[in-house]
Amino acid sequence: MNTPANDSYFYVALIAAVVIYGGYLVVLRMRERSLVKRAQVVDAASRVSAADSMRGSANGGGGGIASGDAMDSNSRSANVGATDSNIGSADIGDGSTS
Amino acid sequence: MESHARSLPEHTSARPESRPDWLLLTAVLAVAGALVRILWFTPVELRQGVAQKIFYLHVPAAFIGLYFACGIVAVSSLVYLWLRDERLDLVAESAAEIAFLFLSVVLVTGPIWGKPVWGTWWSWDARLTLSLFLWFVLLGYMLLRSAVEDRSARARFSAVMGVLAALLVPFIHMSVYLFRTLHPMPIILKPERPSLPNEMLVTLLVSMGAFALLFAALLRRRYRYAHLREGVVAREEELA
C-alpha cells in the first residue's frame, strides 16, 4: 500500500495551531500591558489624592471637608492628568516596569 | 470574601513585566520538544500518511480543552455558587477563555485532518456539531461577562452558564457511541487498552504533557491578569 502524499495538510494544521496559541499569547500580553498602564495611572492618582487630602487636613479643620470634596471632584480630571507626568518620571523612570 | 479583589496589591503594576514567566517558558519549550518528536521521531501512519500527525495536535487540544478546562469551569462555577468567593469566579473566567482557545484549535485542525482522510472538511454529525455548539456557548459566556457590569450579578449569571456549558462535555464524549458519526471512537479514554502502537502512544503522551503544561501556564497567567484587573477596577471606583 502506498502512503498518501498529504504532508501539506499537516503543515497547514501545525501553522494554524501555532498562530492560534501564539496569537492568544500576544493578545494576552497586550492586554496585560494596557492594564499595567491603567494600574500605574490609578496608583499615581491615589497617591496624589492621598497627598491632597493630607494637605487639606493640615490646613485646618473647618475647611477640611470642603477641600476634600473639591479634591474628589478633581481627582478624575486634574489629578489623573497630573499623574500622567508622574508616571513618566517616577514609575517608568525607576525601571520597575520594563 | 468580597474584599479579596478589592485592593490593588503593592507594586502589582510592575509584576507582569518584571519577572520572566518560567512556567510559560518551560511550557513553550516542552511544546517545541513535542513538535520535534512528532516531526522527526514518530512513524508515519501507513494509510493516512503524514496528515495523521495532526492527531498529536488535535487530540491533546480536545482532551485538555474539554476535560481539563471545561472541568475547571464547571467545578469553580459550582463552588462559586456555594461559597461566593470572587477568586473562583476569576478562575472560571480564565479557564473558560483557555477552553475556548483549545477548542478553537480543535475546530481548526479537525477539518484540516478530515479533508484528506474522510474526503470532506466538515460533517454535521453529533460529535462535530456538539463541539461547535460548545465553542459558541463559550463565546456566549465571554460575551455575557463583558455585558454585565455588576460584579455579583456577572459572577452569578456566568457561573450558571459555565455549569451548563460543561454539561455538554459528557454528551460530546458519548456522542460517538450514541450516534452514527464519521468521527473515530476514543482510542485512549476507553475501558480496553489504548489502540495505538507504542511509539505513537508515547508521542501522544509527550504531546499531551506538553500541552497540559501550556494550559497550566496560560491559566495561571490569565488568572493573574483577571485578579489585577479586578484590583484596578476597584481602585478606579474608589477614586471616582
Write up this protein.
The complex is a heterodimer of chains A (98) and B (240). Chain A is 85% helix and 0% strand. Chain A is mainly alpha-helical and 98 residues long. In chain A, helix 1 (7-58) packs antiparallel against helix 2. The N and C termini of chain A lie far apart (58 Å). Mean pLDDT of chain A is 68; it is low at 61-98. Chain B has 240 residues and is an all-alpha fold. Chain B has one domain: Four Helix Bundle (Hemerythrin (Met), subunit A), CATH 1.20.120. Chain B has 8 helices and no strands. Chain B has helices at 15-18, 22-40, 55-83, 86-118, 126-147, 151-166, 168-178, 198-239. In chain B, helix 3 crosses helix 6, helix 4 (86-118) packs antiparallel against helix 8 (198-239) and helix 5 runs antiparallel to helix 7. Residues 1-14 of chain B have low confidence and may be disordered. Chain A binds chain B through residues 1, 3-7, 9-10, 12-14, 16-17, 20-21, 24-25, 28, 31-33, 35-36, 38-40, 42-43, 45-46, 49, 75-76, 91, 96-98, and chain B through 8, 11-14, 16-18, 24, 31, 35, 44-51, 53-54, 57-58, 61, 101, 104-105, 108-109, 112-113, 115-116, 214, 218, 221-222, 225, 228-229, 231-232, 235-236, 238-240.
Question: How large, in whole angstroms, is the Cα Rg of chain A?
Answer: 26 Å
What is the number of helical segments of chain A per DSSP (H or I, 4+ residues)?
A: 2
Protein structure class of chain A: mainly alpha
Beginning-to-end CA distance, first to last residue of chain B: 23 Å
Relative helix content of chain B: over 70%
The average pLDDT of chain A is 68
Examine the secondary-structure arrangement and name the CATH architecture of chain B: Up-down Bundle
The secondary-structure element order of chain B is HHHHHHHH
Shape of chain B: globular
Strand proportion of chain A, as a percent range, falls in under 5%
The CA-CA distance between the termini of chain A, in Å, is 58 Å
Strand content of chain B: under 5%
Looking at the chains present, what oligomeric state does this protein adopt? heterodimer
| Overall number of strands of chain A | 0
CATH topology name of chain B:
Four Helix Bundle (Hemerythrin (Met), subunit A)
Biggest interface, and residues per chain?
A-B, 37 and 47 residues
Which structural class do you get from the secondary structure elements of chain B? Answer: mainly alpha
The low-confidence parts of chain B are: 1-14
